[in-house]
Write a structure and sequence with these properties.
The protein is α/β, with parallel strands linked by helices and about 230 residues long. The chain has eight helices and eleven strands.
Length: about 230
């Protein structure tokens, strides 16, 4: 990683051997790593550590991964943090629940540690490519600031989780253009992340709940668009 500060990763899993295996492989690749054995402890650490990425199991004592993710997404300093579920739970409802609370990726165990590290690296590289320090969009009462990851609606500031923000920003910078769910999955989550098409619907619903129904229009049978009318 050269002279750049190491990305910080928080590994959350109730199995200590998994914590140590992931910590070893991530540190070997230059990451700064902390570990937690349950969700409650993970939230405590995250508030001080401010990780760039959280690897999160679902089934844990005290607090499960879904609830942990929800609480992490409520911490303003973690709005840009990647949250990746790494779990043995492969049911569709578990995956939908994870994305519903703001997950960026959902990976099922087992996965080889080096393959996981490679996938994490791809997430960070994709983020670098997206960065545009001068990007800001204003439409009516809505202002989207790409630099600070903030949204303002009628002067009121709203914090959106990373993927909700990116989805809104992508649609807003391509106004009146219709995108299918597959288009949005490719542009927002990328080919390195395997998520359900329904994930897009969940994120659109949550964005609408926060900014209102007027901006994102459903084009039945096709997809979604950001409407200027």
């Amino acid at each position: 990683m050269g002279n750049k500060p190491a990305h910080k990763v928080l590994v959350v899993d109730d199995e200590e051997p998994i914590q140590e295996l992931l910590k070893y492989n991530l540190e070997k690749d230059g990451y700064e790593v902390k570990t937690a054995g349950d969700g409650a402890r993970a939230v405590e650490i995250a508030k001080k550590f401010h990780p760039d990425l959280v690897l999160l199991d679902i089934m844990m004592p005290k607090m499960d991964g879904v609830e942990t993710c929800r609480l992490l997404r409520e911490i303003p300093e973690l709005q840009k943090t990647f949250i990746v579920f790494l779990t043995a739970r492969s049911e569709e409802y578990s995956e939908v629940a994870a994305f519903d609370v703001g997950a960026d990726d959902y990976i099922t165990k087992p996965i080889k540690p080096r393959a996981l590290v490679s996938r994490i690296g791809a997430l960070f590289r994709r983020e670098v490519k997206k960065t545009n320090p001068s990007s800001s969009i204003s439409v009516g009462d809505l202002t989207i600031d790409r630099t600070s990851y903030t949204i303002k609606v009628d002067g009121r500031e709203i914090n959106l989780p990373k993927k909700e923000f990116e989805l809104l920003y992508f649609l807003a910078k391509n106004p009146n253009k219709v995108f299918s769910r597959e288009d949005l999955l490719q542009n927002i989550w990328g080919s390195d992340v395997y998520v359900l098409a329904r994930t897009v619907d969940v994120h659109i619903r949550k964005v609408r709940e926060k900014i209102g129904e007027d901006y994102i229009t459903t084009v039945k049978g096709v997809g979604y668009k950001f409407s200027l009318n």
